[in-house]
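Data deposition worksheet. Section B asks for the primary sequence of the deposited chain exactly as it was used as input, without tags or linkers unless they were present during the calculation. Section C holds the resulting structure in C-alpha cell form. Section D is free text for depositor observations; keep each observation to a single sentence. Incomplete worksheets are returned to the depositor.
Section A, Depositor: J.P.
Section B:
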Amino acid sequence: MESNIRFLPTTYPEASKRKKAAGLATKRTLKYIAIAPNEKARSEAIRQASPAVIKSLSDIALNAASGDVKFTPTQKRELRKHRQHIEQLIDNRIPLEKKRRLLTQKGSGLGAILGLIIPTVVSAIGSAIMNRNN
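Section C:
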C-alpha cells in the first residue's frame, strides 16, 4: 500500500532568504553607523535600527572590552572615559531600548565613539577570519 503523504522539507528557502536579507540589512546599517558623516546622522540611524543592530553593537562593545581587539593608546584613553557606558552596553540584563537610548544620548553618550570602535573591531574580526581560512 503506497502512501501519498509527502514530507515537507526541514528548511524553507523563503525563510533562509529572509534571514540573509535581514543579516545584510544589519551589516549595511552597521557600516553606515561606522562611517556616518556626523553625530546627528549616526544617532538617527541608531534610533531607527532594528533590535539585531543594537545586539550587534553590544557584541562589538563586548569584543572591545574583552581585549580581543588591539587599540592604540589614544583609543584606549578615549574608551576608558566611557567605561561605565560600555559596561551597560554589554550587560545582558539591560533591555535593548535602554541600550538604544544610551547609544543615542547627547553629551557623554557612546554614539560619539562608535566611529572609533566599529571599524577597529570589524577589521580585527575580519582579519582573524581570513587568517583562519588560510
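Section D:
The chain has seven helices and no strands.
Residues 13-35 form the longest helix (23 residues).
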